Each structure stands twice: as structure tokens, then as C-alpha cells.
Amino acid sequence: MDSLLPPILSAVGGIVLGPILTKMTGGGTTGGLLGGIVGGLAAHYGLGAAGINVLGDPAAGATNVMNIVNNLLEGGVGGGVLGVIAGMLMKAKS
Fold first, then answer.
1. What span, in angstroms and rounded, lies between the C-alpha atoms of 56 and 94?
2. Which of 13, 29, 60, 73 is the most buried (most CB within 10 A)?
3. Per-residue pLDDT tens for 32-73?
4. What is d(CA 29, CA 44) in angstroms, rounded to the nearest whole number?
5. Helical H segments across the chain, by residue range
6. What DSSP state is assigned to residue 60?
7. Residue 94: is its pLDDT beyond 80?
8. How many C-beta atoms lie closer than 10 Å to residue 11's C-beta?
9. Are 27 and 91 in contact (CB under 8 A)?
10. pLDDT for 54
């Protein structure tokens, strides 16, 4: 379960922040939601591969409070960026 918690938290961060930022910029909700999920996971795996950990200590484990906050924030940022892009591409044409 410890190996599944960080990607799940990153996806949740993207799910929360992706549609919010997409609606603030006038994009479509579906693109914001899908972009939020994919962006959150991409940010998690990309930062993990680069060895970048902004908050917390990776050696402390996935259930450390600062690592949980780190995973939520990195998912939110990645999901927000990709959610805005996908929301703009998938918005309703009027």
C-alpha cells in the first residue's frame, strides 16, 4: 500500500485543482478533469525520476505528513497545468 499511496494522492491533487483552474480560465470541465488526473500522475512520476522532492523526506515513508502534502501539491500543480491546456482544447465551440 505504501507504493500506491503517492500516485493516488498526486492524482487526487490533480483532480481537485485541474477543473478549478480550468473553469477559472474558461475551459471545459471534462478536459480539466482528465488533464488533472494525467497531469497529476505525470508530475509525480516526472519529479520522482528527476529526484526532486520539494517538501518532506523520501526516506521517511509515504505516510509521513510532509510527504502526503508534497504528493498532493505536486499533483495539483501538474494537474492544474495540464488541466488548463486540455480544458482549452476540449471546450465547447460556440
1. 46
2. 13
3. 899 999 999 999 999 989 988 888 788 888 888 999 999 999
4. 22
5. 5-24, 29-50, 65-89
6. G
7. no
8. 23
9. yes
10. 84
Q: Which three cell numbers stand for residue 85?
A: 491546456
CA-CA distance, 24 to 27, in Å (whole number)? 8
Tell me which H or E stretch contains 58. Answer: none
CA distances from 55 to 46, 68, 73, 83 (A): 16, 9, 9, 23
Q: How far apart are CA 44 and CA 32, in angstroms?
A: 18
Cell numbers that stand for 55 in this block: 517538501
Q: What is the CA 89 to chain-centroid distance, rounded? A: 18
Going from the C-alpha of 47 to that of each of 23, 29, 41, the distances in angstroms are 26, 26, 10
> C-alpha grid cell for residue 86?
486540455
Does the model's pTM come out above 0.85? yes
